[in-house]
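Key idea: predict the complex, not the pieces.
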Amino acid sequence: MNTLADFVFVSTLLFAIGIYGLIVKRSALRMVFAIEIMINAANLNFVAFNQFLWNNAIGQTFVLFSIALAAGEAAVILAIVVVAYRLHKDTDVSELKTLKG
Amino acid sequence: MADLTFVAMAVVTVGGAIVALEADEIVYGAVALAGSFFGVAALFFLLNAPYVAVFQITVYIGAVAVLILFTVMLVRQESWAKEASPRSLTRLGGILTGLVMASALGLAVVSSNLSQFNSLLNETGFLQIGQLISTNFSIVLEVLALVLAASIVSALFLAKVEKEEKKQ
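Result:
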C-alpha cells in the first residue's frame, strides 16, 4: 500500500533535481526544464496531502489553477528565450548581459 | 510498502527529470521532460485524482512539452551537442546543494509520521471540483483567464518579428 510518505519522498527528489538544474545549468532552456520540474514537485505534494488528509477537493482545484499558470509562464519564458536567441544567437544566461544594470 | 506500479512510475518521473537535465542533445532532454510529466500524471491517477491527471496530460504534455520542443528546435545549434560544461566548482556546488536538500527533506519525511497515512480517504471527484471552481473560486477563475490571455498576448508580442528587423 502506498503511504503519504512515498509520494512526498518522490516530490522531494524532484524538487532537489530542479534545484540542482537551476544552479548548475547555464542554458536558459535547461533552466526552464528545471523550473517546470520544481512546479511538478509542488503540484504532486498538493494533491498527495489533499488526497490523504482531507475529504474535499480544494487541493486538486488549486493544482488545476497552478497548472494553468505554469502554462502561461512557460509561454512567456519561451518567447523571451526566442527573442534572446534572435538578438544574441545564444541562450547562455551568463552571456546575456544587455539587461544588466 | 509501496506497490509495483508506484515504484515504476516514480522511477519514470525521477529518471525522466534527470535525463531532461543531463542529456547531451537537448531535444532528447525535452522528450524526457515530457516523460517525466507523464510519470507525474500517472502518480495523480494513483492518488485517485483522475481529473487533475487528465488536466496534467492535456496541458503539460499536450501544450507545454510541445511548446518547449518547438522552441528547442527553433533555437538549437549544432554546437550544443558538446554544450559548454559548467565549471566543475559550480557543478560540485549544485550536486552538493541538491544532495543536502534531498537528504534533509527526506530525513524530515522519514522521521515524521507521514507514513502512517496509508489510505486515500478522499472520495471527491469531478462534481466537487466543478462546484468549487464555479462557486468559491469563481473570481480566481476569472482572474486566471485574464492572466492567461495577457501572457499569450505578451508572448505573441515578444516573439513577433519587427518589419525593420526582417529587412536586415
